[in-house]
Structure formats: structure tokens, C-alpha cells
Amino acid sequence: MTKSDKDQIPVQSLLIPKFILYTAKILNWISPFLASRFAARIFLTPFGYKIPDREKMMYQKSKKEKILINKINREVVVYNYGNSKKKILLVHGWSGSGTQLSKIADALLDSGYSTVSFDAPAHGSSPGKRSMMPHFIETIHQLESTHGPFEAAIGHSLGGMSLLRATKHGLTIKKLVIIGTANSITAITRNFIKNLQLDQKVANLLKSYFDKRYGEDLDNYSGAVSAIGVKVPTLVIHDKNDVDVHYSAAYEIANNLQNQKLIITEQLGHRKILGNPEIINKIVQFVLE
Predict the structure, then answer these.
(1) Which residues on neighbouring strands pair with residue 74, listed in sequence order?
(2) pLDDT tens digit sequence for 65-82
């Protein structure tokens, strides 16, 4: 499979092992209810990958530390990259790691900033098997108090959703950048079930299960809902060829932001966009404005 072919396949479809897909299909045939419970475990399980060459310099040159996030009692690995007192928080997406935004981090260093990023629980080098969006959010809030203040924050995919929620609830930053960020939790669960090649009835059962388990409608965490409470200037970037998150999410989020700039690209997908020089330059210029 060529790199171009991979860019047309959702990340979840690439990372989920085939034996899990087979098991899910069998359970779907036996009972959609059982399939939804099995899917719930997989939904909360990030899949790791070998660190790409483009991220190795940031990994090697960062000062790394393992800290405990008190509210969730989980450990995360934190990356301190650069020495400037002007700091920017970087937040990776699901199944990503703290060096995922390495090309953006390099450009920020060249512009006089340092970056702080982290491997969310069960991601990268952080311990654990399962994770969830609230873990990202609590990590963001604690890092603000221990490693901040931050001039700006930049998030990819679920990292962008987490930053929207955190900013709505007190994260103090001057600028926010979100890239390839989803809007609806319901849409996320439906896409996940689609990638598992299961019936959409399972998606409905999965969403209901999570709502009951966490005691609220998880669509309250959706990007556009959080965006209503975000007042800082926000740059929303999304690609029309993103097969992981449909670009309509960018419009839905931007419409609810008080101060936003929207950039819609083409042919960059969900992942390649993070290394595109033109987009990186626009991000840096936005932060510098």
C-alpha cells in the first residue's frame, strides 16, 4: 500500500488489528448489544505506532518528565521543547503522541517560542491501556498550573476538541489553533462503528452506554458546543479530503466562535496537513499577530 493510498484510509482503520475486526463482526451477528460493549472497550483503547523519523529530533531534544495528573490519578509523559519563556501548549489527537506536532513545534522554536506537549494517558510512552477525552482535558488544566502560562495552544483532532472544552472552562491563552477537529461526539461514535464495519444500531447502543456511564449527554463535549464559550481568537484549519473527520465540522465549530479565522485546504487529509509548510507558516503568523 502506497502512502497516497494510506492517506485515503481513516487512521482507526489502519491501526485496528484484523482479529479485533473479525471478533467485532461475529459479536455483531450474535448480538448488537454484545458488539456495543466490545466496541466500547476498543473505543477507549488507543493504538500505538512506531515514532516516525520526522518526530525523532523533537523526541531526542526535548526534556522529558513523567508527572501524575492528580484529578484522574494517571501518569503522563511531558515534553519540554526549547528554552523560551514564551510557551505554547501542543495537544495531539487520538492514538497520537506528544511529538505529533513536531514540524509545527520546530517552526515555533525558530520564531522564539518553546513548546510543552504530552503523551496522554495510554498514549505514546505514558502508561495505561485505555484513555478518554476527559483525561486530555484534565492534563491540559494541570499543565497550565505546573508548566504555564501559555501564550497559545494548538490541538489536532481530539486534541482540538479537548482544547475547546478546556478553554471554555478556564484555560487562559491568547490564541487557539485547532486542526482537523471533530464536532459531534455522536458523529465520532458512528464513524468509529463504521470503521469497525458494524451496524449503526451498534453505534446508537454505544453512545447510549457512554452517556449512562458518565452521567451526561457526551455531545456536551462536542466542538461546536464548547466553541460557544470560547472568546479568544481561534484559527480553525481543516482539509476537504480529511477521511477521519468531515470538514463540515470546521464550519459548525467556526459558526459558534466569537472570533475566528477559517482555513479550508485540499489534498492534505487528516495527517499530512500537520507537516505542510504553508499551513505551518499560517499557524505561526496567526500566533505572532
Answers:
(1) 69
(2) 999 999 999 999 999 999
Contacts of 177 (CB under 8 A, 6+ apart): 152, 153, 154, 155, 234, 235, 237, 283, 286, 287
The three cell numbers locating residue 163:
482544547
> Exposed, middle or buried: residue 219 (CB in 10 Å: 0-12, 13-18, 19+)?
middle
Q: Which residue carries 450474535 as its cell? A: 30
Where is 203: in which H helix or E strand? helix 200-214
Q: Count the residues in the chain.
A: 289
- Residues 196-224 have pLDDT tens digits of 888 889 999 999 999 998 888 888 899 99
Reference 100, options 180, 168, 155, 167; nearest CA is 155
224: CATH: 3.40.50.1820
Is 174 part of any domain? yes
Residue type, 44: L
Residues 159 and 99: beta-carbon distance below 8 Å: no
